[in-house]
Every structure is written in C-alpha cells, then in structure tokens.
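[Q] Does anyone have a clean structure-token version of this?
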Amino acid sequence: MKHIKMYVLGVVLLIGLHQLQAQNKPGNRGQRFQKSEKMNARNNAIEFAKELNLTDEQKAKVKTINEEFRTKAKALKDNDKLTMGEYKTQMAALQKERKEKLEAVLTPEQKQKAKELRQKNKEKKEANSDARIKKMQENLNLSDAQVSKIKEQNTTFNTKAKAIRDNASLTPVEKKQQLLALNKERKDAVKSILTKEQLEKQASFKHKEKAIR
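[A] Here you go.
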C-alpha cells in the first residue's frame, strides 16, 4: 500500500497536479474545498498512472526518487537554524530537483501522453464548470449578463489558483491558505452578481440537497 501511495504521488507531480494537506476541523467549508481538491488530484493521478503504463522499473525509480525527496524535505523541515526565506528557497530547489528526476523517468512517448492527458483533464474541468453554470442558470433563472460575469469570475479564479499552485516559493501550508482565501473570494464575487431573490433561492436549493444527503 505504501508503494502504491508513493507511486501515485510521483505521478501527481509528473502530470502537474497539486494536493493539499487537511488541517481544518471536520465540517468546515474550507476543508470540504480542500478535500475536493485532494480527491480530484488523486483520482486524476490514478487515471493518468494507468494511461502512462509505467513499467515496474519506472515505478521503482519513482518510489526511490520520492523516498529521497521525503528524507531531504524532513531534514530541511527539522533544521531550526534556517530562516523562513532560506527554507522556502531550499524547498523550492528540492521540489524542482524531484520534478526533473521524475520527468526523466518517462519516455518521450509517455511525456507526450502526459501532455495530452493534462489537456484532456483541463477540457474536462471546463466542461464540468460549464455544466454547473448551466444548471445554476436554470435553477436561479440567471440572465445572460449574469452568466457571462460568473464565467469571467471562474476564469479569473482558475488563473489565480494555477499561479498559487505553481509558486515554488510558497510552502504547502501557505498554498492551502491562499487557495482557501481565493475560493472564498470567488464565492463572494459570485454572490455579488446574484439578486437577493436568487440568493434566497440558492440557499433553499442547498438546504434541500443537505437534507437529501
């Protein structure tokens, strides 16, 4: 099981996905957002791992690379003499080193396949987002102008979220905090687009969904 987890973790990095560590209390909205992020990343990683069809030798290399990274990362974390700036710089270097080593494990064909899968995953996320907005439009009777504004907000959110995830100078905790704050910002922005009646209707729908669960 440990071998599988490390293998999946390696593939997560190879395909450019990012998982967040849970630190909020159960039932917290931030935790639900974080869990959703983590679950989506893991599910995509498992799917991509199958598609890439790594050999046993490649899986073993991925496992070794990740074990080495974890050892170095722990030593870095336990080093009380480092300033936060030094820690971030050295951690970013470690992450870059691991990514390069993991990418070197892949064949040219697998690298191309990974690129295609990333694009496929991006298109899938966009399709899911459009479907959610369409459902929202039907349930709340949104105007075309409101739909356009919500789509703009989602585009802005995705751009900012990607920048946070790709920022190697941030620690995992800082990334999580910024993503949670960004998600709240997005929700508040969407709420500002809705009318009072639409907000009440939305709250009613959410209440009914919770009752069904």
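[Q] Thanks! Anything notable?
[A] Helices lie at 2-14, 29-52, 56-77, 84-105, 108-140, 144-165, 172-193, 196-212.
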